[in-house]
Amino acid sequence: MKMPSNTTTDQSLLATEMDAEDFYSQILLQAAQEMQSQAATADPGSKQIRPEPGLCVKTKCSDGGKVFVNVCQSSQVPAPPPLSEAELIQLLESDDPSSFRVPMSLGEPHAEVDNSSQGCTAYDVVINSDFFQKAKCNKLFLEFIIAVCLEGLEIKYNILLSREWKLLKNRKFLGNISEQHIRTKSKPVIQEIGSESPQISDGNSLGEKPHLTLTVEPCIGDPQHLIAEIKLPKVSSSRSLILDLGEDRIVLSAQPSLYHMDCYLPFLIDQENSQAQFYKTSKVLKIKMPVVSSVE
Questions:
Q1: Each residue's pLDDT tens digit, 202-223
Q2: What are the DSSP E strand ranges found in the chain?
Q3: What is the mean pLDDT of the chain?
C-alpha cells in the first residue's frame, strides 16, 4: 500500500463557505486516514477493515473531559467463546470476571466536536457483529460489553473512565467511521526455536521477563492442547494484564511496566478457542490453547 502524499491538496478544505465545525472535522478525518495508512505499512501482517456503526456511549475521563466510545461491529473480528446469560451471571459473580476474553480492536483516540460545539475525545472499539447483536438485545450483555470496552481502553491508553455512562439514543457513532487494521497473523519467527524451550525476547524497559512453563496434553501421542503457565508474583489482578495470542506467538504485558514477554510457540494454535485464567492466590496466568499443527 502506498503512503499518501503530504503535498496532495484537498479542494474541499479551500471552500470559503465551509463552517468551522466541518472544516475541523475534515482536518481530523485526513489525519486519521494518514495514521491508518502508516500503521498498515508498518505492520504488513494486518488487514484493513471498515467497521459498521453500532452504538455510542458518553462518559467522562478522570480529568473531567467528555469521552465518547463508539462501539462498532465487524464480522472480521473473531467472536468470543459462547456464553449464555446464566454463565454471564456466574462470571460476573466470580472473583475475576475480566478473565473472559472478548476479542476487540481498540482504535486510536480522535478529537471531535459534540452537539454543543465543545471539544471532546472519541474512541472506536470494534467487536464481532454477532456478539454485538446479542449484546444489543440483552441489557445484561450490553452492560457487560460496555464495561469490557471501557476497561480495555483504560489499560491500553493508561486513562481512567467513569462507569457512569449514558447510551445515546439517536446516535450510533460520533465523528467519521475510519478503517481499522486488525492483525491477521503473527510476525514470522526470526530465530530458530529450540526443542526444549521457546525463544523469549528481553522486555527491557517494558518490564522484567516472567517465568514460563509450556506443557502439552496429552503427554503421549499427538498433542491436542498447549498449556502455558506464566508466574507473575507482582500482579494482583488480571486488570493489569494485556494478552495477545498469535497463531504461533504469545505477547504478554503487565502494567505498569511490571512484566513483558514475547514468546514464539512450537505449535500453531487456535487463537479463537484459546482460554486464559489468572489465579490470584498463586499469581499464575494459565493459557490453554488448542493445537492446530507443528510449526514447520
A1: 445 577 889 998 888 876 677 8
A2: 46-49, 52-60, 66-74, 105-106, 110-113, 119-128, 166-167, 180-183, 211-217, 225-231, 241-246, 249-254, 259-264, 267-269, 275-279, 284-294
A3: 77
